[in-house]
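Predict both folds.
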Amino acid sequence: MSGLRLDRSALQIGATFVLIALSFFISLTLITNSEEALFYVVVVWCIYYVCHIIFYKARLHHYMHHRMGKNRAWTVYEAVLGVVYFNQGWCVVMFLQHYTSSLDLQVPHLLIFLVGAITFLISTVAKVWATLLVGMDVYYYRDLFLDEAGDGGLVTTGPYSIFSNPMYGVGNLSV
């Protein structure tokens, strides 16, 4: 879930890794205070949520298909998406590093730790389980990007029998 797809070509893995490492080191050097951390979080979330909506509503994926061919366009998109996924998780770390002390709660630290650990465990299990059921390509929007329905059909077992979208609902509780 870090953004790297180890089942891809060495070139794609290498390019994604280099871009992730570059964004990681740039963020470490640029973010030195809480205002910069908050700006980073807002920008990353806007890129992930707002830009995704614009990207698909404006049908820019079709433009990529036309310019590069579907397979090459998908490879490029997947590498960029990997970097965005990494930064989405990394921005949570940066935000907490700068703002945890502002959450001065009158609750024992052990209770906070236990609630956090249980929430993280439930979230991670739900996300991984849901991803295993639908496949990594659905997790990475392949069906949406290529305008192709997945082979498995509608999944209604496992966490999907309880939640309509456990991958992005309960699966994002830890974020």
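Second protein follows, with its predicted structure tokens after the sequence.
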Amino acid sequence: MAAPMIRACLPPREVTRPKAPPPPPNACDTHAHVFGPATRFPYAEDRSYTPPDAPLENYLGMLDRIGFARGVLVQGSAHGRDNSAMLDALAQRPDRLRGVAVADADVAPALLREWNRLGVRGLRFNHFFRDGQLHYRGGVPLSVARTLAPEIAELGWHLQLWIDVKDLPETIPALKSLGLPVVIDHMGRTDARAGTGTEGFQSLLRAVGDGWCWAKLSGAHRLSRAAPDYPDARPFHEALVGANPERLVWGGDWPHPRVEGEMPDAGHLFELFQRWTPDQAAQHKILVANPAKLYGFPN
């Protein structure tokens, strides 16, 4: 059998400084990745995509450009189970950064405690299917969460889930049974053309509204192909804000790996957040208070 093709990703666009008012002090971008440099942190051989090197200094430059004090680095599947690039970044900037790692079922509890010391605050699991198969190689399946749930709970961490909301209704019982805070990536990563009335997205709204589940107001460029303003993604954002702004965080998804369509501009994505979230109190919760609570930043 031929080896699966490894797609090369485009580099991120140069970030424009947002024209809107600056974010509040201690604003946090809760979804980004560092990749490489590959000479120091090689990419996994069994990966779905090859990103351009996106090292820590580039990410911090992006944060500075859009005016954010804090960031959360999420382990990207291009590095597989090797969290080294992300952990190295956390060790360099413990004042600014927190992390979400991946781990197999046999990970040593002592290693998880060391990650906690470095700033890891959650584990990410992959339940994102296309054509009956997990769409990204290198991720950890949700089934592993059952084994790791006691350790996650003891550390006060959360479970981050990469899922298409079409599969959420049947997954909710398993998630609730774990007794952990759950964070859903990218507004549920649905297709914006399906609209907000689907059973899957409505189940996400109820979960967020009930308070046991969080959602990331990120990935408009993954729901929609209508760059650069993604108007058909806006109803999803607004519905989540209307459901419960106490359980939402925002992320730019830099450096936007494996984007299908036009590469977004992180500065413009933040402008869209401000435009789509006009209430200043809600903005402060989503950008500052909520991520401080979820990721353990000082108030």
